Amino acid sequence: MLLISWNVNGLRACAGKGFSEVFSQLNADFFCLQETKMQAGQLDINFPGYQSYWSYAEKKGYSGTAIFTRHTPQHVFYGMGTVDADGEIIYDDGNIHNHEGRIVTLEYDTYYVMTAYVPNSQDGLKRLDYRMKWEDDFRMYVKALDKRKPVIFCGDLNVAHKEIDLKNPKTNRRNAGFTDEEREKFSTLLGEGFKDTFRTLHPDEQTYSWWSYRFKAREKNTGWRIDYFVVSDRIMQNVRAATIHTGIMGSDHCPVGLEIEL
Q1: Using CA atoms, how far apart are residues 36 and 34, in angstroms rounded to an integer?
Q2: 230 with 260: CB under 8 angstroms?
């Protein structure tokens, strides 16, 4: 099974930069997108043999996620489920996180597949407090899913976890995506039953998935690894490859991939 995740930074723009060709070239079972920046009906994009599931932000031209898949799910959940005191998951519009189209979860017989676009803490860390709340609630949600069956989740998680995950760690110490708080939240999640697949398989490899559009960052490979595939501990043994497709253009992010036996 091959899964691909890509922050396309606007699917309508990416569609004009070869998105369909990349989609066909990678030939994935699941193709997960973040930052589609679309509302329903703004782009007619379909691929033979695939179904697609979309979560839209209420704010136009902002955020948004989608999954294209060859495999019909048992259930589809949009947004972050709220976990009650009994560990049950409730999906409703009352969840404070579900206005920005950041999560799609597909349920299958023996596993879940989820795409997630984690909020950016923004310049001046003005959204860091909200991000911390989001992280805690997201961790509860993923753990509640994991109690039922193994989880594969992917996306732009907006954090470079370790110093190896960005070009200039010292000068970015208090910048969004590399604060101690964000990194600690990701460490906590991984410590509660999950694996960062790329870092597990490539402990010493310094490869990036995002580059600023400024200062010729991609040309100089001054980047960050902020796009991930994370899996439940108990299926890490089924992972065959974790890849970062640095040569694929069309966005300020490149696609990342996972090969797994399910």
Answers
A1: 6
A2: no
In this structure, the number of other CB atoms found within 10 A of the CB of residue 40 comes to 7
Nearest-5° angle of CA 4, CA 9, CA 140? 65
Rg, Å, the chain Cα set: 17
User: For residue 205, what pLDDT band results from cuts at 50, 70 and 90?
Assistant: very high
Please list the helix, strand and coil fractions of the chain in percent, rounded to the nearest 5, in that order: 25, 25, 45
Q: Distance between CA atoms of 173 and 165, rounded to whole angstroms?
A: 12
- pLDDT attached to residue 94: 83
Measure the CA–CA gap between 77 and 93, rounded to whole angstroms.
12
Query: Count H helices, E strands: the chain?
Result: 6, 16
The whole-angstrom separation of Cα 68 and Cα 65 is 10
Starting at the earlier edge strand, list the strands of the sheet with 65-69: 51-55, 65-69, 30-34, 2-7, 256-260, 239-244
8 contacts 22 by C-beta, under 8 angstroms: no
The secondary structure of residue 163, as a DSSP letter, is: G
| Nearest of 125, 205, 181, 118 to residue 153 by alpha carbon | 118
**Each residue's pLDDT tens digit, 57-86:** 999 999 999 999 999 999 999 999 999 999
How far, in Å, CA of 183 to CA of 12, rounded?
Answer: 32
Catalytic residue positions, numbered: 117, 156
Residue 228 phi, psi (nearest 5): -140, 155
How do residues 171-193 score in pLDDT, each as one tens digit?
999 999 999 999 999 999 999 99
